[in-house]
Amino acid sequence: MRSPCVIVVGAQWGDEGKGKVVDLLAGHFAWIARYQGGHNAGHTVVIGGQRFILQLIPCGVLRGVSKAVIGNGVVLDPQALVDEIATLRAAGVDVAGKLFVSTRAHVILPYHRSIEHAAESAPGRLRIGTTSRGIGPAYEDKMGRRGLRVADLYDAALLRDHIREALAEKNAIAAALYNAPPLDAGRILETYQSLSDQIRPFVADTGALLNAAAARGESILLEGAQGALLDIDHGTYPFVTSSSTTAGGACIGTGLAPTRLTGAIGVSKAYCTRVGGGPFPTELAGAAGDALRRRGNEFGSVTGRPRRVGWFDAPLMRYAAALNGLDALVVTKLDVLDEFERIPVCVGYKGGDVIPPAAAGWEALEPVYEELPGWQTPTEGVTRWDDLPLRARDYLAFLARVSGVEIGMVSTGPERGQTITLAGSRLERLLGAAPEAPRASGQSARP
Ligand code: IMP
Question: What is the sign of the dihedral through the CA atoms of 357, 363, 366 and 371?
Fold first, then answer.
């Protein structure tokens, strides 16, 4: 049997609770790697009442055993990395010797942030509602073949020339298009020289490390950031992030050979949320939306923005499942639905399940709902499937059926322990915790 090389992806618009899931699964893996995005992500992990928000470093480091990789597909703000390392150290987690940052990752520079900020607030521009971290402009420079990579930080002349030449162009654009003040090349150079010294001990050829680890039979978990519907190609374009969030991005963003992969796990809330602009067919407005937002504490972990909330959307989950080849689903925040008398689930769209490629198509979508009875019993902290109220179990079984993906784990609260793991599930087999069994073609009685 091959050692597990498993991808964990968000199956919605991000914020599904991947942080907690990766933290829980990390114990099964020797390596954890991030493959895309940057410090726009905010993976929250609660351990013993202490809340950690990791933006760049894979959540697995909190388990203390895994080796953590920031892959080539990530766009790296070195200041954010230095700050995160310091925060972890202050909390007693030392990543020295455990964290490896790709020489090929692209670097976010201050002008990426300032241009994004100016562009997002410019009159007449489509507002994506970005996290203002400079993620999109850094990826633009990468694809435009004018980016700066981590390895380039250690070539003094290249770094100096790059910053000087890039700034001449960016300052001209910022002044002409957005009337924004110029940035100073000397100060940026000084800052980046110092930051590159600080991150130097972590820099490595991470693609080579991961492929060598896989060849030795070591297990690898690939940690996606954001979610499938924010994917640059397959998401709700243009209201997306600028990277390949779906499972296909994991190999591009780490250099790990696709033939090493053994499975993909999707993470979804028991309902839906999204931050920023863009289509949201099952969005819930008014008092019911406020109630769900309050109960779920749906406020961005990075930006603090209130999240938009809505009901579970099965057509979108089927789309995410197909795109990512999901083997198993983890459903989070079940307890948030505890008080609802009835819980609608979108099971399809009038006129068919076609996921629109264009913005106009989304406006025409009309969700078809099936209402399930709520359980109106607290489920927070429940750790056994059999201890869930029958209606909660029926709700989860329904989600699995309409999504076409088996549920392997249910989260009933932010703490590690507030989790139900379904013994004998496909998820367990993916982790290598149980022997491989032939795949069932339909759904079992359990979710
Ligand atoms: P950007 O990634 O900052 O360019 O933002 C693009 C879109 O992705 C915006 O709608 C953001 O709110 C959204 N986004 C980016 N990162 C996250 C995340 O970690 N969780 C949820 N939404 C995100």
Answer: positive
User: Where does ligand 1 bind, in terms of residues with CB under 6 Å?
Assistant: 13-15, 40-42, 128-131, 133, 135-136, 225-226, 230, 239, 241-242, 275-276
Q: How many CA atoms lie within 13 A of 388 on its CB side?
A: 28
Are 228 and 235 a contacting pair, CB within 8 Å? yes
Reply yes or no on whether 335 is catalytic. Answer: no
248 with 391, same domain: the answer is no
Same domain (yes/no): 159, 148: yes
Does residue 369 share a domain with residue 312? yes
Count the domains in the chain: 3
What CATH number does residue 291 fall under? 3.90.170.10
Burial class for 48, CB neighbours closer than 10 Å (0-12, 13-18, 19+): exposed
36 and 97: one domain? Answer: yes
Q: Which residue among 36, 74, 131, 234 is best mutated to probe the pocket of ligand 1, counting the most ligand atoms within 8 A of its Cβ?
A: 131
> Domain containing 412: what range?
268-430
Per-residue pLDDT tens, the chain, 447 aa: give them.
Answer: 688 999 999 999 999 999 999 999 999 999 999 999 999 998 888 878 888 889 999 988 888 778 999 999 999 999 999 999 999 999 889 999 999 999 999 999 999 999 999 888 888 888 889 999 999 999 999 999 999 999 999 999 999 999 999 999 999 999 998 888 999 999 999 999 999 999 999 999 999 999 999 999 999 999 999 999 999 999 999 999 999 999 999 999 999 999 999 999 999 999 999 999 999 999 999 998 999 999 999 998 777 889 999 999 999 999 999 999 999 999 999 999 999 999 999 999 998 888 999 888 898 899 999 999 999 999 999 999 999 999 999 999 999 999 999 999 999 999 999 999 999 999 999 998 655 544 443 334 567
For the question of residue 28 being annotated catalytic, the response is: no
Catalytic residue (choose from 23, 28, 39, 43): 43
289 and 415, same domain (yes or no): yes
- Name the helix (H) or strand (E) containing 206: helix 206-215
